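User: Working on a comparison across species. This one is Glucose-6-phosphate 1-dehydrogenase from Streptomyces bingchenggensis. Can you predict its structure so I can line it up against the others?
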Amino acid sequence: MSATTAGQWVNPLLDPSDRRLPRIAGPSGLVIFGVTGDLSRKKLMPAVYDLANRGLLPPGFSLVGFARRDWEHQDFAQVVHDAVREHARTPFREEVWRQLAEGMRFVPGEFDDDKAFKQLRETVDELDAARGTSGNFAFYLSVPPKFFPTVVRQLKRHGLSDASEGSWRRAVIEKPFGHDLASAEELNQVVHEVFAPDQVFRIDHYLGKETVQNILALRFANQMFEPIWNRSYVDHVQITMAEDIGIGGRAGYYDGIGAARDVIQNHLLQLLALTAMEEPAGFDAESLVAEKLKVLKAVKLPADLGAHSVRGQYAAGWQGGELVRGYLEEEGISSDSGTDTYAALKLEVDNRRWAGVPFYLRTGKRLGRRVTEIAVVFQRAPHSPFDTTDTQELGQNALVIRVQPDEGITVRFGSKVPGTSMEIRDVTMDFAYGESFTEESPEAYERLILDVLLGDANLFPRTEEVEESWKILDPVENYWDTHGRPEQYTAGTWGPKAADDMLARDGRNWRRP
Ligand code: BG6
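Assistant: Here's the predicted structure for Glucose-6-phosphate 1-dehydrogenase from Streptomyces bingchenggensis:
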């Protein structure tokens, strides 16, 4: 095993220029703060196991949990075991588990507890000696943002943020990164007091999804889409992230945050940036960030936010044959909460490619079904030689990137209905991952954790992107704060009526995916 000076590990048995070879992490360990949280149990621990199971972690890989619990190492290992059994994507294999479990350690303590951080430092040193982690550690902050400053300063204070010669230290930061521009800037300042920009990996797990990475492949590895990917041919773009779930047990996190801050500020604006950006000079972090940033900076909000933004809150209703309660009846939510569980927004990307093309973004909990998609809807043909009665059922052409759950791409176009007349109707042409590939899609967190360990920053938003995204959302949130309450919508429907009205005013409709 050998490491390059840049901190990127290279397996000497593999030819690094062959991109088809599996990317395998070098000697390293991961420390998770907030190890008792939902994210850790449902996503991070299973992702670590799945990576190990796929042979993508080094033999001495070590996992350290840090939390305010009176646990021994084996209690922590048991928690990881249960999480893996319940949520891992790949089959459970005793030998993989045993090897992984040998590298598990637990450090009990509060975030401001010096004794605990001293113990963490000793644990890291012990793992270096016993398991060959070579001083390479990533610190995953899966904790509410109010704890970021304390944790990063403690890492600094106890010498954990500085790598020794030839090794690396990285910080992984979960969203939400602040709740507005000012708080995000403050957090950024604290994080950068301790970590250099290339040590910080901000998670937006949507970027770890195969279908999201495929947006760039679709656009820039092909010739047929890009010529029409602009204002001359595109009528509008709809980006939808609909969920059927409610807030579950996350009242403490969600209330006061709401749908727009929870997912528009990050996931949906990243999808917008990837859909609208120019071709990057290369597929490296610098080039990608540069192009995404240009889009975010070109985003223009409509002058009349009252007419072009909507927020809603779910009320009790029937979903999947079950009567579900409304947001205000959820445990931990006060009965007068004004938090949005639905948000829709019209934006423009004010540049030469997109001027005048509306981008409609919407998201919501307890909607009709779980679906995330980007629909690029094209203008109607400028002229039709057919009788209008022949084409009355014809919609606009559309290219729909189906992000989840039915991953793939659909193209909608008109086709002659078999028969003696020239009737034309919409049909679709579908690409489905499951049918075209035998390879399985890894979970987003598998990809992102592996990238952190490899030091590959392509799929992580930079500070500037986070701040630009808040600049877009802040005026909307401020407008909402001073203009009444969210409109109620019945659980299991497609959101508030105002959202339909918003598109109807523009002579358009939301898709019903
Ligand atoms: C998270 C949000 O970022 O994304 C959650 O905080 C949301 O509220 C989740 O449920 C959705 O992720 P996915 O991958 O299931 O679409």
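For your comparison, note: The pocket of 6-O-phosphono-beta-D-glucopyranose is lined by residues 243, 262-263, 372 (CB under 6 Å).

User: Helpful, thanks.
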